[in-house]
Design brief:
This protein has one helix and 14 strands, in the order αββββββββββββββ.
Amino acid sequence: MKKKTLWLILIIGGLFCGEAYAATKRPVPRFVSLRSNEIKIRVGPGREYPVKWILKRKGLPVKIIAEYDTWRQVECHDGTSGWIHQSLLTGRRTLMAMGKECRLLSSADRDAYDKAKLSSRTLMTFKLKDCKSGRCYVTVQGKKGWVRKSQVWGLLKTE
């Protein structure tokens, strides 16, 4: 009975380790977003490292630039970087309006009209499959429309 229990524990443990290991095989760099309104960014990959910054905006997009065990080194829109535990991040993709001229457009066409002007750092949700011709279809504050990729932060150049 004890041998069966030990084998079961080893098998289950191996499955969990396999899942954790597989998660580190995802491409880097990649974008994710913050899971809650207060996230501590540390100078190194562990709770023993001092806090460098505190981000206070759920949904804020961050770029994962490195991984170490369960820690992710992220880069923010302003170029600052540090380490966040993976449990504080979500794979939900968001974009953030940058600059003064980010506009919500009626279509992806060149002759699209403005539906709204977005203030800097406005967050929006989107689906990557809906990005084409240099524009992405987004939802922002209940409105839907298109934004220029050059006016947002949260996309890799290849997306």
